[in-house]
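F.,

This is the one I mentioned.
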């Protein structure tokens, strides 16, 4: 039998390696930006076309490369950062594996112009599918400019797996934000299809966070700083009241490298215990500086996972530092037996002799029990009125009963309802079932959370928030299917400014959002104008801007947690954010309408999260509670 094991050609090996390193355009963006930082650049430009599918270009003013280095950087395992195996445990640079440029060159058309600061002329190199096409001298600016065109052009199967342009652009913005946040001292800019998305000047960390996420983040940040013999920790955490239902704004950096670590994330979440609901996640941007010899970054090709020598100590330091910052800024309760911090703002620094004690004035002849003179009495009140007669009867123990207390017994009369006047509201699929018989029109609200109604076999309890969510969800699904959601025009259109990431998401959902009944149009950079909202929400007490922001946030949460279809996630988010909440007072007409709409739904028994909406308590069960 002949030999069957063969050595793969370099072109095939490079394409296999590229599958690990470059999974989508955002992966190539990350590698190029990190190389520019390692080159010592203080100004980096990122230019993207067609969400990175047509062009990714990174221009930096770093050290540049010589002719030999320019050619060598596209070879596999060629790097300037590692010389021997021991260097892997002393890494301070972003890149070190020597695979990124070779992997990118294997699946794209690459053009690179580079020039060292001391050279007068630069080098141009063109590569297609790991094959060198051209290398020649060229006039170029100091630093390096790399253009990646037609990514995955020679691997169409990989290109077909790419998502829509807005989805891929969101991933690119995520990678850009992480790199820019890790290096606030470097100026960055991002352009997509000729539109400037970011222009970030060199600044401090807090200003960089505000430039990335918006001016309103300035008041949301709490500083964290801790220096120990194990790690140095610095950064910012978010105030609890600004927590969101998605994990998007959580960043860990170890030696300025972005990482994902569920263990350390748990340490931060524990510090927020009793300050946040279970389904809310705080903002944090935390930098951990640690001796490179105590960590291993060579765990995964994407370099987002790290192993620690003493992770339990890091966990404890992180947890205590975050908790102390929350307490220091009066976010969580603190106890000081010497002085209660809550009264510190009321303590004056005046000299004791300057403090004047408070004084009051009073009339010594005032008698609250003295009878009013007839002349002083208002003529609008008669002697028979409750105002005139109540004090007299109260003080003497006799006299006339106040008119306001007449017919008090009627408060306890129970109206006998005619069964013929009861509304027939049977649950679908339970016709003829004895426990679901016509519900009375006279309903009762329990603690402004549940609606109670009498049924033939006992008692029915309905969760008003879950019921309204179910009604709205099925209505919005119908609007998304037939594209006929009615809109109520706003008298004064509202503008909503989103983060670049959320703006790209909103643009991808714009057609479906309009199907729900929103009238929305694009208006400048990262800004939308809301000119109308769905008719179903006309009575909602939330303003258009908040409603739209909650809609986007809820959509991200639904897709992240449940991996739902786009339209289904949008309908769920809309229903949750616009439904009446527990604690809302409802009138008889509103309760009757809600129940009628609920029983008209396809699945009234369960909420959109799969929990029960309706509970029944039978007479037999009630009798048992009274030992009957």
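My design for it:
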């Amino acid at each position: 039998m002949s030999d069957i094991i063969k050595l793969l050609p370099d072109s095939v090996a490079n394409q296999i390696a590229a599958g690990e390193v470059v999974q989508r355009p955002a992966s190539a963006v990350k590698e190029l930006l990190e190389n520019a930082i390692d080159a010592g650049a203080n100004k980096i430009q990122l230019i993207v076309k067609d969400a990175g599918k047509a062009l990714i270009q990174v221009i930096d003013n770093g050290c540049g490369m010589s002719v030999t280095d320019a050619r060598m950087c596209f070879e596999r395992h060629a790097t300037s950062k590692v010389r021997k195996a021991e260097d892997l445990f002393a890494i301070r640079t972003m890149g070190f594996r020597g695979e990124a440029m070779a992997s990118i060159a294997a699946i794209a058309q690459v053009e690179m112009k580079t020039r060292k600061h001391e050279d007068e002329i630069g080098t141009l190199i063109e590569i297609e599918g790991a094959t060198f096409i051209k290398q020649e001298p060229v006039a170029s600016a100091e630093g390096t400019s790399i253009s990646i065109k037609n990514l995955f052009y020679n691997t169409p199967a990989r290109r077909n797996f790419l998502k829509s342009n807005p989805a891929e652009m969101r991933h690119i913005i995520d990678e850009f934000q992480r790199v820019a946040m890790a290096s606030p001292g470097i100026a960055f800019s991002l352009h997509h299809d000729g539109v400037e998305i970011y222009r970030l000047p060199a600044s401090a960390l807090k200003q960089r966070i505000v430039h990335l996420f918006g001016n309103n983040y300035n008041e949301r940040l709490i500083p964290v700083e801790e220096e120990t013999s194990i790690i140095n920790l610095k950064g910012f955490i978010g105030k609890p009241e600004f927590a969101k239902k998605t994990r998007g704004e959580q960043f860990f950096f170890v030696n300025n490298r972005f990482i994902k670590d569920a263990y350390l994330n748990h340490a931060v979440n524990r510090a927020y215990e009793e300050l946040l609901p279970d389904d809310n996640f705080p903002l944090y941007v935390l930098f951990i500086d640690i001796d490179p010899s105590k960590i291993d970054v060579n765990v995964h090709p994407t370099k987002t996972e790290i192993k620690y020598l003493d992770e339990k100590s890091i966990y404890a330091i992180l947890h205590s530092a975050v908790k102390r910052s929350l307490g220091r800024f009066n976010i969580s309760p603190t106890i000081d037996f010497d002085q209660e911090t809550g009264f510190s703002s009321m303590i004056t620094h005046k000299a004791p002799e300057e403090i004047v004690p408070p004084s009051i004035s009073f009339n010594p002849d005032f008698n609250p029990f003295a009878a009013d003179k007839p002349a002083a009495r208002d003529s609008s009140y008669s002697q028979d009125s409750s105002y005139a007669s109540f004090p007299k009867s109260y003080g003497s123990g006799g006299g006339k009963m106040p008119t306001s207390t007449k017919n008090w017994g009627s408060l306890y009369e129970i109206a006998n309802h005619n069964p013929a006047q009861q509304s027939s509201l049977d649950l679908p699929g339970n016709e003829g079932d004895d426990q679901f018989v016509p519900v009375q029109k006279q309903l009762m609200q329990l603690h402004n959370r549940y609606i109670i109604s009498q049924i033939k076999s006992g008692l029915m309890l309905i969760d008003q928030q879950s019921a309204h969510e179910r009604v709205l969800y099925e209505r919005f699904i119908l609007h998304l299917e037939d594209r006929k959601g009615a809109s109520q025009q706003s008298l004064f259109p509202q503008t909503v400014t989103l983060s670049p990431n959320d703006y790209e998401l909103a643009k991808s959902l714009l057609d479906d959002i309009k199907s729900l009944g929103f009238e929305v149009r694009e208006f400048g950079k990262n800004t939308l104008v809301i000119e109308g909202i769905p008719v179903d929400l006309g009575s909602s007490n939330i303003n258009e801007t908040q409603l739209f922001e909650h809609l986007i946030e809820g959509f991200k949460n639904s897709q992240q947690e449940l991996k739902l279809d786009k339209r289904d996630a949008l309908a769920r988010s809309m229903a949750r954010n616009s439904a009446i909440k527990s604690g809302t007072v409802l009138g008889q007409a509103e309760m009757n309408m809600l129940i009628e709409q609920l029983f008209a739904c396809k699945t009234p028994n369960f909420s959109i999260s799969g929990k029960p909406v309706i509970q029944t308590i039978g007479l037999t069960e009630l009798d048992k509670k009274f030992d009957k």
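Residues 330 and 389 are 54 Å apart (CA to CA).

Talk soon.
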